[in-house]
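Page 47, continued from p. 46.
Same chain as before, 190 aa.
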Amino acid sequence: MRTHGHSCGADGRGKPTPEYAAWCSMRARCLRSTNKDFKYYGGRGINICKRWNEFLNFLTDMGPCPAGYTLERKKNNKGYSKSNCKWATREEQSINRRTTRKICVGKQMILLKEAEKITGISRKTINDRINRGWTEQTATQPVKGQNPQCKRGHFYAAAGFYLTKHGHRVCRICAVDNATRYKARLKLGV
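Result:
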C-alpha cells in the first residue's frame, strides 16, 4: 500500500496527515470487530466501497481535509463512498446523527434545537410532550396561559431566553439589564 508520505507525516513531524488518519479510522470502525465502535459501523452493515481500499483513491475522491474538519457520511445508514462522504465540521456532524431529533413544524422538518429558538419553548419540554403523545404541531405551541413575552414585553423567541434550574424562562435582555442596573447600584453604594 502506497501512502506517499501521508502515513508518517508529509510535514516531517512523523504524524499522519488528517486524511490518512480519517482513512485509517474509517477502516478500523468498519473492518475490525475488536474496534470499540465496530458495533455502530461494521457491526450494523456500514461498509467501505472497494475503491477506497487504496488510500490514494480515497485521497483523490475526497481531496485535502480542511483544517478543523473530519470525515462524515451524508446518510448515516449508508456506507463510505465518494457519493456519500464529505469533510464536515464537528457542529455539522452533531446535527447529522441518528440520535438527533427532527420534528415537523408547519411543512418544514427542523431540529429540536431550532424549534426551541423559534417557539421559545425549551427543547426538553417539546421532547417530553412528544414522548407523552402530543403531536409535533401541538408540542411546539405554548400552553394556554403561558405568556410568549416577558414582563417587559420582549418576545422570548426573538430576545432569547434561558431556563432556571426550576424550569422558569428568563429573558436574556432583561437579565442583562438587571445585571447592569445592579452593578451601577453597587458603584453608587446604594
